[in-house]
Amino acid sequence: MPVDSYRRKKKRLGDLLVNAAVITQAQLMEALEKQKKTSTKLGETLIDLGYTSEYEIAKALHLQLGYEMVKLSELEVADTILNLVGEQVLRKHVVMPFAFGKDNANVLRVAMSNPLDIIAMDDLAIITNMQIEPVVTTTTEVMKNIDKYYGNAEAMAVAERYTKEKESQYKEEEKAQKEDVLNAPIVVLVNTIIEQGVRQRASDIHIEPLEKKVRVRYRIDGVLKEAMVYNLNVFQAIIARIKIIGDMDIAEKRKPQDGRITSIVDRKEYDIRVSILPTVFGEKIVLRITAKKALNKDKKELGLSEKELAEFNQILKHPYGMLLVTGPTGSGKSTTLYTALSELNTEHVNIVTLEDPVEANIDGINQVQTNDKAGVTFASGLRSILRQDPDIIMIGEIRDNETAQIAVKAAITGHLVVSTLHTNSAASTIARLEDMGIESYLLADATVGIIAQRLVRRLCPSCKKSRLATLTEKKMMQVPETEEFTVYDPAGCNSCNGTGYYGRVGVYEIMRVTPELKVLISQNATAMEIQKRAEALGMSSLRDNGIRYVREGITSMEEVRRITYE
Prior knowledge:
42% of the residues lie in helices and 23% in strands. By secondary structure, it is α/β, with parallel strands linked by helices.
């Protein structure tokens, strides 16, 4: 049972965390000193300083005070509870009521990131006229659930408020456009769309004008899902606001435009690339969301097996040569490249990148943005980079013969060149470069490794369901027909928003270009011949690795079929 209110008042969060050995006394004193200047909560200050995490704080409160710990995303909250307290109060105190007491209907169970917050509990007790029972969770869990149950209503109310304001005022078009940009409800609406997208793990946000409405869709785990629909008369204000914060031309409505926004959600910084494209019903907006730290991962977080990790390390040990990462758009190529660069980034090497656009800023790396208007193309920029005494060069993408020629020559003359290409497999990358006019003997000499990759959705661990594989599936996975083999299918629950999947993981095909493969490449071997020889030398294909994930219950057969259709 939770401790009484008298004991709660005497306990302080900092002392609890020190007693639980989550932080030291010195770290607590430093955080308290910083807290005086920033006026943030102590827990947030400790997380910002890197001394602990939300989960560690919640676990310490759970163990030290005896409060129950709950994962809100796995629960369904009834309407009767949602109607008890207004959204503004919940956001102010960062709390979420989720159930009535187990034995007493006059007790309201409330998830809190800080169950020592007496003011929050008193407020809720006065509003609901009920006894409050605190339950421990994290701030992220609370905010995600407030968004889930109240977010849409809040966004709709803001849009409605704006519509009413606009209908009640009749002004000239030019003046109205300026009013739109500065209009507070629209600022709130655009922020809400972005924040909800981030909290729902969206990689892209699509804001689309249709004939009679505006549709907002989020791409979550690679699949688009409709999130909101608004009245068409708010659209011009939304697009004007996004153009302003994305540093784009408000007056230009006939040409495609690109911009960039930096947004902070739940104390994390996100880099948002904006693309605007004129369509029949107006300009369509796509926001590509990237967490600043998400691209800068450790190799072990990519989803590589022990064997693949060893192959990757072996490729990165080369002082010069060309490493290519291939796959379709949105397959995680940039993450793999940035991971490789972060690994190689030391004070002893000069790393220069040429990108369109620069996707994440990394300390210690010289990053160059292409600019066609200023004459900085991939080819011309690459020539300039070679005069900057580089050790490692990263090219965002090899798109044409000129860029390919310079990249190969740079790799042969003592530079490590890493880049991306759009091909279906590691072996077909060689054929693609030959099609671009690169001599096979130069390719054999320059290339040290090729990584083909895809992303598959992870099955939700809370609801995936098992079944026996069919004969066709056994054949695909090369399992004897007589053997009983278990596979898993998506089901759908609160945790995964009914999709059956939660998160994504990379599937890789790593081809280290060994002396044997160099001979084959220089002899103009076909992609099929290179693939067979590489597999004979121990390379696991995309399909093999996808099937390994199916065997381990990480993903479904449907996902593996999707990435290995060819």
